[in-house]
Design goal:
heterodimer; A: 396 residues; alpha+beta; six-stranded antiparallel sheet; four-stranded antiparallel sheet; 18 strands; 31% helix; B: 585 residues; three-stranded antiparallel sheet; two-stranded antiparallel ribbon; 22 helices; 7 strands; 66% helix; 4% strand; globular
């Protein structure tokens, strides 16, 4: 290894390692404080899975002080890849490949794999939720961070015809036209989080919903700031005010809201060209090529307390394509892994009427295990030799 | 040096003997008086889902109310504040519990409710110079209290003001007290056939579950209460005797654990270890001033004794609970101190300079003090939430990562001694600097290994349980910060960016990182929402961080101002560079 290119030498330096570690420490520190106000997913995407982040000074201070300003700061992706580069160049330029360094090389290889694994997870992992009421069968999971407007035609007795418009599209476009849609959609308002007011006089200028549940209950929509905070039970309830038109003729204005859907208000009917379709704003569904029925959900508490002792779901898994029909038990710390997805016991419905399973799909799930195996081998070799010399020197 | 003084040579033996006598005096079981109080305390009760001796219920309940496990009694007046009672006897919690249940009107005059917040004190119209109150005094203001409780209950608990939190704290104390007073609802009676759901005195003869044995047992317990009410020792002792013989529904293994827990309560090994740690610490510090060899040896021996007792307490808890050593914040404090003290003990064996003993003892004492304060929340062996209930991961991930915390603290405390001795004394010569640096470096390497492996194991647990390896939540981030901080120190040293002084300063900062990861991440949810920082745990955390920052500032003073530096002859080392540590990792 003769004169390495200066830039490579700079990239391989231990000084850079220390600086990057220090920068990472502060990023993680800030990303933890930010979770007081922001939900974990927002923090993930702005701090840890981003190239650059603007860290508000406010997050480190009592909230009533109201300090403005933010500092631009390298995000998790940037720091992760710089550390990756630093480590790779260090081994290419600076380190000698010797047997006595085998342990160290393996540790670093494990670390590189961990960084890659987290990156793969960041860009490809999906987390959905499957809620099953006891006795029901379900063949989809929902993405609780996204909504969709579902337009369902139930005229065929065998099969519902469903067209969906993603919530993100409602947020971006003012008019949505598509040949698959039975009507054109004019988005009068779309809020990521909103509550519904009943029988309140609306501010002048706002479009009044004159159809569906909005008309019968005199509802209007009030915008709310996005829900957040370390309290994970709070979440956003998107809502939209939609005017539907067919060939330029106004059919009316509806309010659709996730809150209505989740509180079991039935989908609202729209009659167009003599047939009736239902519209509803619901969590985005991800359909599966198999289905699950909940046979039994159990939830035991320690005697005389409210402390949960265990939760478990007995589920029947039916996969016609694979010819599988079997019963599985999913319980705390014992998820079901099936078709590249992991189903774990996450929550349950009130009165133990049903189960809530988290469905995680992570193509990179094996990488951390590989990283750990390599790293563990390296640590054993490295610290085994270091410890013995430390003890020898201590005695000397 | 002249011939060693034979008296001095015997000093370690004498000091060890003294400590052994002290320990022995604590191991001696307390005798029964007229009443078979010990026998009653050993009987079981199922409380918060756990089967424990009634003695534990009494102690933890009194601890919640008054922050103490005993109270003072002078005739028929009692309380937690001795000064208000004149000549009073220190009385065990079990006697207080008996009075609460069987002589309620008397117990209602005992001043055992601790109230600190001035606004809550004002609410019950109490003078501010008193801390402990009887339930009679408190309930005299029942209407006002109920109105205030109702107001607080309408607010999300995360948004409570400090006043509201203290108020609801009082509410919880009252609820606890009334639940004890209503003894018919306590689960004193073992269920037949190993049913995990124990019976109360009221349900013991419920038609569906009654057996002759459970009815008989419930009668004995009731008889004991009646005898206590009537202050009839003969009948009380007979009832306790009958009850102890009627425990066939409790399996022998469980009975063994109950007896052990009772003895564990009596001995209070962690309190005992704390006093021995203080003694060790003082001896180690003295050894740097005079009589280095004998005092250093005595410190090491007594540290060993403290460790034996600390370990015995730890093992007892494992046996009683049937769980790995760390199951909650309280037990993590016990274990952090244990890990650090073991490592410090090993260091002392290697270097024999009093430094290992002093840091081990200091950390052992401080962590047990933290644990003691955490125990004021009640039973420290509560049942585990379902998600945490896996012995395999508790035994691996949690234990390893907690050892990592302990090692990081040990390195940080070594660094504190380095800085303080270097700046304020003349004792830190170049050889000792090198020794210190090596000790700190070695312990940080150990800490890196354990915190890293522990964090990785946590990731695997998370993936096994929830299908994700890493989620960036506060607790995970806290663990990762310790790994990265230790890695930063190691790399800074390998790169020659820090030497002896630098590694010490970074090591002290490691204390801040670790305390934040250990406690700070638990406080995030409550700390900063709607009000300022006024929670006692948070306050102590800030005080700790403040002291560490002060020590860092002291450590950053230029080397020529350090007294150790000035003490050395100019030119010898002062002008020259400090020895560069080996650059190889």
């Amino acid at each position: 290894m003769k004169q390495a290119v200066p830039i490579l030498r700079w990239f391989s330096s231990l000084q850079l390692t220390v600086v990057l570690l220090a920068l990472s420490i502060f990023l993680i520190f800030a990303g933890t404080w930010a979770q007081i106000d922001l939900g974990i997913w927002t923090v993930l995407s702005t701090y840890f899975r981003s190239w650059i982040v603007f860290i508000p000074l406010q997050i480190f201070l009592p909230r009533e002080w109201n300090v403005p300003g933010a500092i631009p700061y390298p995000g998790g992706f940037l720091l992760g890849w710089l550390l990756f580069l630093n480590l790779v160049t260090a081994h290419a330029v600076r380190f000698k490949w010797q047997w006595k360094r085998a342990g160290l090389i393996l540790i670093h290889a494990g670390l590189l794999l961990l960084i890659v694994g987290e990156f793969v997870t960041a860009i490809s992992a999906e987390e959905n939720r499957m809620t099953i009421v006891e006795g029901d069968t379900v063949n989809y999971a929902v993405d609780i961070r996204a909504v969709e407007l579902a337009i369902v035609d139930r005229s065929d007795p065998d099969r519902d015809q469903v067209v969906v418009v993603p919530g993100s599209k409602l947020a971006r476009h003012s008019v949505i036209r598509d040949p698959k849609l039975p009507f054109d959609i004019r988005v009068e308002a779309y809020h990521q989080n909103a509550d519904l007011l009943e029988g309140v006089e609306r501010a002048g200028g706002a479009v009044v919903a004159d159809q569906g549940v909005a008309a019968t209950r005199a509802l209007s929509v009030r915008r709310l700031p996005p829900a957040s905070g370390t309290d994970r039970d709070r979440s956003d309830f998107p809502a939209a005010v939609l005017t539907l038109e067919k060939n330029g003729t106004r059919l009316g204005t509806w309010i659709v809201s996730l809150f209505l859907t989740l509180t079991d208000v039935p989908p609202q009917p729209v009659t167009v060209d003599g047939r009736t379709v239902d519209i509803t704003l619901r969590h985005k569904r991800v359909y599966k090529p198999y289905s699950m029925s909940l046979i039994d959900f159990r939830h035991d508490k320690y005697p005389g307390t409210e402390t949960p002792m265990n939760y478990s779901s007995d589920v029947r898994l039916i996969d016609e394509a694979h010819g599988e029909d079997r019963q599985v038990r999913i319980y705390m710390n014992n998820p079901l892994r099936y078709r590249g997805e992991t189903f774990y016991q996450s929550s349950f419905l009130e009165g133990d009427q049903g189960t809530v399973l988290q469905v995680v799909k992570n193509p990179g799930w094996l990488l951390p295990y590989l990283a750990c195996a390599i790293g563990a081998l390296g640590l054993t070799i490295h610290f085994g030799t270091r410890l013995s010399s430390f003890l020898r020197r201590g005695r000397a | 040096m002249s011939r060693p003084n034979p008296l001095l040579a015997r000093l370690p033996h004498a000091l060890l003997l003294l400590s052994l006598l002290y320990v022995a005096s604590h191991l001696r079981p307390a005798g029964d008086g007229e009443y078979r109080m010990n026998g009653f305390g050993k009987l079981p009760v199922q409380d918060l889902g756990r089967i424990k001796p009634i003695d534990t219920l009494a102690r933890t309940s009194l601890m919640v109310l008054s922050n103490r496990q005993t109270f003072w009694l002078a005739g028929d007046t009692g309380g937690a504040d001795r000064k208000r009672l004149g000549r009073a006897d220190k009385t065990p919690a079990i006697r207080w519990l008996l009075d609460v249940i069987a002589r309620p009107s008397l117990a209602r005059s005992y001043e055992v409710f601790r109230i600190d917040h001035p606004d809550v004190l004002a609410l019950i119209g109490a003078p501010e110079d008193r801390k402990y109150f009887s339930i009679n005094e408190i309930m005299a203001n029942e209407d006002r209290l109920i109105a205030q409780f109702d107001q607080a209950r309408n607010v999300d608990r995360n948004d409570w003001t400090p006043y509201q939190r203290q108020l609801m704290n009082l509410h919880n104390k009252l609820t606890l007290y009334f639940s004890l007073e209503d003894a018919e609802r306590l689960r004193f009676v073992p269920a037949p056939d190993g049913d995990p759901d124990w019976l109360t005195l009221r349900t013991a003869d419920a038609p569906a579950r009654r057996t002759d044995r459970s009815i008989e047992y419930a009668r004995s317990i009731t008889a004991a209460f009646i005898a206590w009410r009537d202050q009839n020792p003969t009948q009380f002792n007979a009832a306790v005797q009958a009850a102890s013989l009627g425990l066939e529904d409790v399996p022998p293994a469980r009975r063994g654990r109950l007896t052990h827990e009772y003895q564990f309560n009596q001995v209070s090994p962690f309190i005992l270890a704390m006093s021995l740690y203080v003694f060790t610490f003082l001896l180690a510090i003295l050894s740097w001033l005079r009589f280095g060899t004998p005092l250093g040896r005595a410190a090491l021996w007594i540290l060993g004794l403290a460790l034996v007792i600390h370990t015995a307490g730890l093992v007892s808890r494992i046996y009683i609970q049937g769980r790995p050593p760390v199951t909650n914040l309280y037990s993590s404090a016990i274990f952090v101190g244990w890990g650090a003290a073991v490592l410090g003990f090993i260091l002392e064996r290697l270097y024999r300079n009093g430094v290992g003993s002093a840091t081990a003892a200091g950390l052992g004492f401080l962590t047990l003090l933290v644990a003691h304060n955490l125990s004021m929340d009640g039973d420290t062996m509560t049942m585990m939430q379902a998600v945490l209930d896996t012995n395999f991961w508790l035994a691996t991930h949690v234990v390893v990562i907690t050892l990592g915390y302990g090692a990081t603290f040990l390195a940080g405390f070594l660094a504190i001694i380095y800085i303080l001795r270097g700046v304020f004394t003349r004792g830190l010569d170049p050889a000792m600097q090198a020794n210190f640096s090596r000790m700190i470096y070695g312990i940080i390497a150990f800490a890196t290994l354990f915190s890293f492996v522990g964090t990785i194991l946590g990731g695997i647990w998370a993936d096994q349980s929830w299908g994700r390896f890493w989620g960036w939540d506060p607790k995970e981030n806290g663990a990762l910060l310790i790994v990265l901080w230790n890695a930063l120190i190691l790399h800074a040293r390998w790169g020659g960016m820090v030497r002896h002084r630098g590694i010490a300063v970074l090591g002290v900062a490691g204390n801040i990182v670790t305390s934040w990861s250990w406690f700070g991440t638990n406080m995030l949810g409550v700390g900063l929402h709607a009000y300022g920082f006024i929670d006692s745990a948070l306050l102590w955390m800030f005080i700790f961080v403040g002291t560490q920052l002060a020590i860092i500032a002291i450590g950053l003073t230029p080397p020529h101002k350090w007294r150790s530096h000035v003490a050395r002859s100019p030119g010898a080392v002062a002008g020259g560079p400090l020895p560069v540590p080996s650059r190889q990792p």
